């Protein structure tokens, strides 16, 4: 009987110790809330990424649709020997003009260049920043419209033909 009583007491004591070692209800609830908060943050981040991806895809689709709507006549076609150019700027400093031409190249207008105009003997020199050469005035005017719409850039169409300009263009 004494042994049975010892076994019963040992079992009761063991159960009490196991109960004491188990986490308390507030601790369990706090852990579950932390897990749920982490899951909510991951879901929110994934939703934001999906939103950003959707916006980027919509922009890309819109630009592709706009390009498809353009007919070949609306697209800008440069010419190596065209008689028309679009002048976007003119500077007294060659360095400044070259810097601005490089900025136009960085904007995607690879045909940007500088020509020298004026009389070196009198010092009345201008460095003109131009984009492209075109076979027709209409093609140059398309670029001019594009520059105005996309960059709010004032420009004008010029006809190539003055001797000093022709020499400068051959050097480029």
Ordered list of secondary-structure elements with their pairings:
Elements: H1 2-21, H2 25-69, E1 84-91, H3 94-106, E2 112-119, E3 124-134, H4 137-151, E4 156-159, H5 163-171
Antiparallel strand pairs: 1-3, 1-4, 2-3
Shape: rod-shaped
Decide which structural class fits the backbone.
alpha+beta
Strand order of the largest sheet: 2-3-1-4
User: Under CATH, the topology of the domain at 84-171 is which?
Assistant: Alpha-Beta Plaits
Q: Can you count the helices?
A: 5
Task: Provide the CATH architecture of the domain at 84-171.
Answer: 2-Layer Sandwich
CATH class of the domain at 84-171, please?
A: Alpha Beta
Radius of gyration: 37 Å
Sheet with the most strands, sense and barrel status = 4 strands, antiparallel
Count of strand segments: 4
Instruction: Catalogue the unreliable spans.
Output: 163-172
As a percent range, the share of strand residues is: 15-25%
What does it look like?
The chain is of the alpha+beta class and 172 residues long. It has a domain at 84-171: 2-Layer Sandwich (Alpha-Beta Plaits). The chain contains five helices and four strands, in the order ααβαββαβα. The protein has helices at 2-21, 25-69, 94-106, 137-151, 163-171; strands at 84-91, 112-119, 124-134, 156-159. It has a four-stranded antiparallel sheet, sandwiched between helices. The longest helix has 45 residues, at 25-69. The radius of gyration is 37 Å and the shape is rod-shaped. The model is unreliable at 163-172 (pLDDT under 50).
